[in-house]
Amino acid sequence: MRDAKLNSLADIIAHYRPISYQVSANGQLFEKELKPVSPYGFGRLHFTICFSVISAVSRYVAESPVRAPIQFIFDEQQGIDADVEMLFDEMIKSLPREAQKLIDGRPVFKSDKELQYAPLQAADLLAWHLRREHETGEKLVLTSRLMSGDAHIVQEIPDEMLRSWASHHATLPGVPLLRSKQQWKDFKATLKTLTDTGIYPSKIKGPGIYYPEGTSALARAIDWVRRRFRKA
């Protein structure tokens, strides 16, 4: 049964011949150096990888001879979808205009257990095999079948970049206000309240007497997201 499922997923890749795009980062370094000094939402590797994929793929397609709209569909991860939804508009402002134009709506997060999203299962399986090969040094037979014969593009987030983010986070005075899960939850609720009333923290240059306490920290956080992925 398992082999039949694996073969069916490999057949999906063989039939559609997609370009596969691999983005990776040093997870141990992320957990050890970046996570402890980051806002709660930015301290999750899946969040960073999602935005890195959006940035890298849209830039790549924008520079390709054949361009087409890109719809980003990610596997469900608890809490990540809400964070991406909250910061998406600000994040893509750092992308070149041609790359922005190719993004077909906001990213969506779906369960790979739904039959119509079987390609997500194939992508998840490829990611598992690549990670396994990296961890063990063993070459797995199915890995090559899960990669498109047309192109497999690899991008690694350098350790130096992770360390530079960590150094930058450590200097931001607003980060301690956003480090715990509850603080992050409150941040998102406050941000929603502000944006629902037409106030956009990313445009705030300093605290105002009519803004809630901590608004300047929110402004810094949103602006940081934009700057962080400008060169991702």
UniProtKB/TrEMBL annotation:
It comes from the Bacteria. This is Uncharacterized protein. The lineage of its organism: Bacteria, Pseudomonadati, Pseudomonadota, Alphaproteobacteria, Hyphomicrobiales.
